[in-house]
Amino acid sequence: MVGDHxxxxxxxxxxxxxxxDRRKTERASTGGQFHMRDSAARIxxxxxxxxxxxxxAGP
Length: 59
Known about the structure:
56% helix
């Protein structure tokens, strides 16, 4: 978890892509859903360009 938004946990997708501990990945995903950039921005109420800026800024 790299932070939260309106009480929802945010995870770094790049970290999850390279993560090899399947049990921890499954635990992290059971409480939520994985979303691609466009749907994640829409759910968070952000413009895609603002979401891209957050990704570049990092944790």
